[in-house]
């Protein structure tokens, strides 16, 4: 995740002079927590942090935050379960939960909203969008608090009622009003007492009320009397209509029938409801736009990734993205001399941003291999292109391998990737090749940084290339799949079945759909 200044965003304005709101940031990645903490404090928020869902519930109980920024995929307890528990702790109160996640499937959004989430923002975080959402939520929180305070005050000072109390007789003539009634409708008491209550209603309600009252007094069914608060419209002295909640009860006093109406001006409450509805509408529109953009990006990436050369009989490959888009890529092409060259690359992060980082890698790799350039030159060109085009902090780890089947020789280069394994005919590890160089796109390369390793091969040798997401795939207890387990699975399977065996073993260990990082595997030879 990049900081606001790294993304070219302005430094946030000075703190709000009001009492700052408290935000709980929940993320299992220390860098993400630190960046959000700095950004939120610059916006004037108090910040608390939690490293997983279980700690988030604990910090929420102890700290009473006003807003929660919640990661989804975390150890111990994920963001969905943590949100459900936090919402249960809120009771009748409202503490908005905004999910920050790299998972961008529609199901992820639905799961978040079903768990009680109020908003959803994709990673890497767009700090302009986050700032806008926080300002909107801040207004909603303060408005909601104002409404809650009004309700508490009403309950606390019920002996000095702030709701309007209007008493009318059987004819609908106003007998008494309290001070709140004069405030609500704008009429002085003497302007209302002795007049028909219809003066406080717009025309349509006035006609309906007269007919309903006549039918009720004649023995008909009550429409409002004794039915609890109902939503109607009132009419102010200045002629403007406004929303009211009205409850009417009947009293019999000295042979007379009196009706007491409790009226409450709900203008602010309706405004809050409209604001929440507008926020929900904006969220849906944002989601729909993101889906359209993601679909276009997916089509572009598919065209770049799907090459006929990936069906070469000498290779088998598997990519499992953690999100819709994979930051891992696999490429294969033949040189004009017929030598097979392959690439396995792993861009920083995962999702769409990581996938975009791999596009120049694919372009340079295919163009230079098909023109017959040597491997060392291709490495330099890949690095030069990435250094020139990628922003600071974005880089691509990569393994490149060229196999000359006729001469039984191979040449390889590695930068920032896990060891490449060389298997014998039985699947045992003959040797492994550790990365000797930096990833692509960090610094300019000299001859040493582009140095190539030469390898002599036997007829049934097989190379195994993989990203760190494979060996770091963890089960529910946090245990990683690991290099030793990978070697054990490879040794037990026939050459043609090794890839399927590894894939099945990874899913059995981590669970389907539970990968937290992109996973890729490439087998070359045999």
CATH architecture of the largest domain: 4-Layer Sandwich
Task: Please give the number of β-strands.
Answer: 20
Number of helical regions:
14
The name of the CATH topology of the largest domain is: Phosphatase 2c, domain 1
Radius of gyration: 34 Å
Percent of residues in helices comes to 25-40%
Determine and state the CATH class of the largest domain. Alpha Beta
Query: Segments where pLDDT lies below 50 for 5+ residues?
Result: 1-17
Q: What integer is the average pLDDT?
A: 84
Number of domains: 3
Broad shape: elongated
Overview of this structure, please?
The protein is α+β, with helices and mostly antiparallel strands and about 525 residues long. The protein folds into 3 domains: about 20-155, 3-Layer(aba) Sandwich (Rossmann fold); about 160-270, PAS domain (Beta-Lactamase, 2-Layer Sandwich), CATH 3.30.450.20; about 295-525, 4-Layer Sandwich (Phosphatase 2c, domain 1). Helices cover about 40% and strands about 25% of the residues. The protein has 14 helices and 20 strands. The chain has helices spanning about 30-40, 55-65, 80-90, 105-115, 125-155, 180-185, 190, 205-215, 265-305, 350-370, 375-390, 470, 485-490, 500-510, and strands at about 20-25, 45-50, 65-70, 95-100, 120, 165-170, 175, 230-235, 240-255, 255-265, 315-320, 330-335, 340-345, 395-405, 410-415, 420-425, 430-435, 455, 460-465, 520-525. A 5-stranded parallel sheet has the order 2-1-3-4-5, with helices on both faces. The chain has a 5-stranded antiparallel sheet with strand order 7-6-10-9-8. Strands 11-20-19-16-17 form a 5-stranded antiparallel sheet. Helix 13 packs across helix 14 (about 500-510). The longest helix has about 40 residues, at about 265-305. The radius of gyration is 34 Å and the shape is elongated. Residues about 1-15 have low confidence and may be disordered.
């Amino acid at each position: 995740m990049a900081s606001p200044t790294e993304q070219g965003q302005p430094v946030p304005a000075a703190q709000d002079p009001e009492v700052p709101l408290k935000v709980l940031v929940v993320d299992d990645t220390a860098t993400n927590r630190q960046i959000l903490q700095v950004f939120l404090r610059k916006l004037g928020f108090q910040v608390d942090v939690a490293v997983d869902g279980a700690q988030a519930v604990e910090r929420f109980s102890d700290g009473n935050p006003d807003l929660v920024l919640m990661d989804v995929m975390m150890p111990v307890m994920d963001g969905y379960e943590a949100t459900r528990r936090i919402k249960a702790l809120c009771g009748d109160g409202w503490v908005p939960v905004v999910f920050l996640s790299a998972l961008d499937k529609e199901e992820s959004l639905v799961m978040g909203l079903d768990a009680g989430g109020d908003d959803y923002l994709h990673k890497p975080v767009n700090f302009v969008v986050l700032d806008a959402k926080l300002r909107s939520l801040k207004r909603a929180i303060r408005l909601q608090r104002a409404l809650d305070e009004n309700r508490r005050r009403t309950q606390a000072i019920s002996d000095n009622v702030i709701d309007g109390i209007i008493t009318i007789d059987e004819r609908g003539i106003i007998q008494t009003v309290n001070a709140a009634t004069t405030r609500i409708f704008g009429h002085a008491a003497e302007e209302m007492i002795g007049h028909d209550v219809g003066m406080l209603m717009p025309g349509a309600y006035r006609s309906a009320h007269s007919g309903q009252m006549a039918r009720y007094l004649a023995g008909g069914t009550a429409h409002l009397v004794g039915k609890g608060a109902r939503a109607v419209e009132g009419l102010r002295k200045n002629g403007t209509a406004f929303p009211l909640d009205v409850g009417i009860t009947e009293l019999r006093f000295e042979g007379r029938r009196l009706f007491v109406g409790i009226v409450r001006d709900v203008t602010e409450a309706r405004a809050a409801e409209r604001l929440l509805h507008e926020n929900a509408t904006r969220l849906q529109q944002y989601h729909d736009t993101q889906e359209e953009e993601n679909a276009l990006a997916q089509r572009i990436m598919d065209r770049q990734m799907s090459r006929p050369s990936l069906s070469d009989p000498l290779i088998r490959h598997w990519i499992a993205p953690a999100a819709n888009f994979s930051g891992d890529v696999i490429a294969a092409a033949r040189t004009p001399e017929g030598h097979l060259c392959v690439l396995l690359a792993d861009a920083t992060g995962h999702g769409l941003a990581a996938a975009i980082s791999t596009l120049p890698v694919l372009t340079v790799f295919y163009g230079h291999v098909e023109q017959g350039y040597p491997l060392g030159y291709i490495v330099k060109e890949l690095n030069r292109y990435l250094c020139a085009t990628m922003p600071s902090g974005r880089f691509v780890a990569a393994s490149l391998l060229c196999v000359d089947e006729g001469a039984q020789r191979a040449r390889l280069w590695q930068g920032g990737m896990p060891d490449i394994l060389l298997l014998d005919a039985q699947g045992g590890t003959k040797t492994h090749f550790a990365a000797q160089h930096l990833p692509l796109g960090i610094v300019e390369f000299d001859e040493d940084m582009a140095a190539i390793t030469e390898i002599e091969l036997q007829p049934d040798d097989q190379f195994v290339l993989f990203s760190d997401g494979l060996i770091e795939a963890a089960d529910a207890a946090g245990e990683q799949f690991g290099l030793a387990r990978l070697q054990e699975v490879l040794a037990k399977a026939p050459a043609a079945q090794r890839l399927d065996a590894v894939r099945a073993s990874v899913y059995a260990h981590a669970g389907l759909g539970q990968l937290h990082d992109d996973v890729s595997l490439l087998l070359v030879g045999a």
